[in-house]
Amino acid sequence: MDGKEIAGMLSRVREKKPLVHHLTNWVTIYDCANVTRVFGALPVMAHAREEVEEMVGIAQALVLNIGTLTPEFVDSMIKAGKAANKKKIPVILDVVGAGATGLRTNKTKQILENVRVDVIKGNSAEIGVVAGVEAEVKGVEAISVKGEPKEIAASLAKKMNSTVVITGKQDIIAGADKIIFFVDNGHELMGKIVGTGCMAASVIGAFCAVEKNHAKASAAALSCYGMSGELAAKQSNGPGSFKANFFDEIYNLDEEKITGLARVSRA
Amino acid sequence: MDGKEIAGMLSRVREKKPLVHHLTNWVTIYDCANVTRVFGALPVMAHAREEVEEMVGIAQALVLNIGTLTPEFVDSMIKAGKAANKKKIPVILDVVGAGATGLRTNKTKQILENVRVDVIKGNSAEIGVVAGVEAEVKGVEAISVKGEPKEIAASLAKKMNSTVVITGKQDIIAGADKIIFFVDNGHELMGKIVGTGCMAASVIGAFCAVEKNHAKASAAALSCYGMSGELAAKQSNGPGSFKANFFDEIYNLDEEKITGLARVSRA
Amino acid sequence: MDGKEIAGMLSRVREKKPLVHHLTNWVTIYDCANVTRVFGALPVMAHAREEVEEMVGIAQALVLNIGTLTPEFVDSMIKAGKAANKKKIPVILDVVGAGATGLRTNKTKQILENVRVDVIKGNSAEIGVVAGVEAEVKGVEAISVKGEPKEIAASLAKKMNSTVVITGKQDIIAGADKIIFFVDNGHELMGKIVGTGCMAASVIGAFCAVEKNHAKASAAALSCYGMSGELAAKQSNGPGSFKANFFDEIYNLDEEKITGLARVSRA
């Protein structure tokens, strides 16, 4: 996938301004909404069981994130997810902290059993947990995973007939169609602040809302996201100034920059 | 209303440091608290039904915002609102997403039936929904509204005997006394980040705490808020740096700047 | 305590990357997580009663903060606190708004009766309320306290056999061993934004995770935190740019800066 194709997808996000409905965690909820907006889409955060289905009814993508889950909150997620499935809009699930506690692991399973999830996203250990391989998650941090992330992603994608995204120094995107993308954009400062993982899922949601090939959409989203981090890091003295610059660079992305910086490859 | 009068109101906020009690949404709760503080007032965010009445008891204004409402949360809002009415402190209601779902529309009605709201605030479509005219709200974004916003605001203000505020490129403030103010301060970058609408309600709350004429207070608040955005935009490369500069400019507002930049007019 | 000892503690935080489990408020939850991360530790925010004990099981410190408490949330705190006591990891309690409402005062007592708290932290009036002296708290702001803060802290530390921290222009840390530290690092801009109090508790949590003398850990944490504020203020035009610079300076702290700037003294 070349820069021109990626830039074309970003243009569609900006033109169509898809509504990305989130049920997410209370830590990074602002950043998830803001990154969606700065990328040119429209965010909405609504979790009451009395309104999630109706809100899905006007949305173009649904992002679920279990970062600060409770059983009641997961019930709302499942309600929203079923409505999204019925309406055939893409569902993205960020399995934050799967493996850290039984609740997270079990609720992830319950969501996956009740909702068709189009993009399953996490770090290498979280995805390892979902795939059933040995892995250690310290809070929301990947410590270790047994096996090759690329193989784990591919195997889970096949099993679930979904796109699987592992974020990290190199992002791995395994499509249901057996095609695997690597995204080498990004900067280490992105890992020094809280929220870059969660925000990535929101960006994937915005791109999946305008592109039916969810593996391509995810790769394009992560490439734009990562290159904005690269551009921001050049002007930053640390994670505080980085974050402000990061949003500036996302906002100022254009075809020229994307063409010059995109680093997406196929396995 | 001239710059001197506006600057006088800001001075009173800074001197009296009114406590502005919020029951707001989980997305922009930090920004609402922070903008209140940076304007010189004191924020407090408390939603437990066991304490909202007591917290209102030490507050000088109450801000309600339905951005991530649940029925239980609205129950707490109504409890707090009734206590505020009894104590005769101003109540500001931000009808975030009214019209997007039945829950939001109905709960807005329920609040307005149970609490005397002094300032009803929203974007043009949200206020249209409250006023009962045809309008489309996409998540929390105004898409369309049937009719002239100025007329809708004036008619709703009369019906409710309240101040009605429609925020947008030009803010419209319709007082219960039939006086209408326009505020032409502001910058388009304010609409590129999440939270500027919610924060505006907090600022209105701080000003209403020190000025009994709520239409004037709202106009002064939005003028100060908007001019800070103008000043911030001049130094910003995008929405990330803009947000940091915006808080700096709010903090550094003084009579000279306000006198030079205020753009408040009467219909 | 000299700069070298403080710098050594910070190095241990960065090397060991302790997991600091938070049950905190919804206003500053992001900043609490982020400051933990920027200091080099790992944050995790989890409040569901179904998982708090298990999350404590992989944590090295527990931070409790009652800023937006509900009775159910406090139940989760007590569950987590008991698990932390059993595991013998340090528990930090930030008594945000104690004294502002009966709920906050009573729930603080309930936590202290059910959980052994290693570090009790608040502003002068909040700690006054916990100690049972006359004090006024306006929302989350200290207005007045009867008596000498140093004496109140020392007496409460003795009574509870805990470390007591009063934050303010000069921070006071009273150890259970009767040793009292003063920290004179800090800058007034830290008080102009929301969240610096809450974040301080997170930093104390990270340092207590690597240092058994909790009074020393708290003093070192507050010294590093305060000097980062001093460094940030020099480059800032107001509270917006200050906040970004603050995180940069925390991230860039090193032994040389700490040795030159630390201002910790003993009573």
Structural account:
Three copies of one chain form a homotrimer. Chain A has 267 residues and is α/β, with parallel strands linked by helices. Chain A has a single domain (3-266), classed as UDP-N-acetylmuramoyl-L-alanine:D-glutamate ligase (3-Layer(aba) Sandwich). Chain A contains eleven helices and eleven strands. Chain A has helices at residues 3-16, 29-38, 52-57, 71-87, 102-114, 124-131, 149-160, 196-208, 214-233, 239-251, 255-261; strands spanning 19-23, 42-45, 61-65, 91-94, 119-123, 135-138, 141-145, 163-167, 171-174, 180-183, 264-266. A nine-stranded mixed β-sheet of chain A has the order 2-1-3-4-5-8-9-10-11, sandwiched between helices. A two-stranded antiparallel ribbon of chain A has the order 6-7. In chain A, helix 1 crosses helix 9 (214-233), helix 1 runs antiparallel to helix 11 (255-261) and helix 2 packs across helix 8 (196-208). The longest helix of chain A has 20 residues, at 214-233. The mean pLDDT of chain A is 97. Chains B and C meet through helix 2, strand 2 and helix 10 of B and helix 5 and helix 10 of C.
Tell me the greatest interface.
A-B, 32 and 33 residues
| CATH class descriptor name of chain A | Alpha Beta
Give the radius of gyration of chain A.
17 Å
- Percent helix among the residues of chain A? 40-55%
Mean pLDDT of chain A: 97
Shape call of chain A: globular
Number of separate structural domains of chain A: 1
Task: Supply the helix-strand structural class of chain A.
Answer: alpha/beta
Characterize the main sheet of chain A.
9 strands, mixed
Number of strands of chain A: 11
- The CATH architecture name of chain A reads 3-Layer(aba) Sandwich
CATH topology of chain A: UDP-N-acetylmuramoyl-L-alanine:D-glutamate ligase
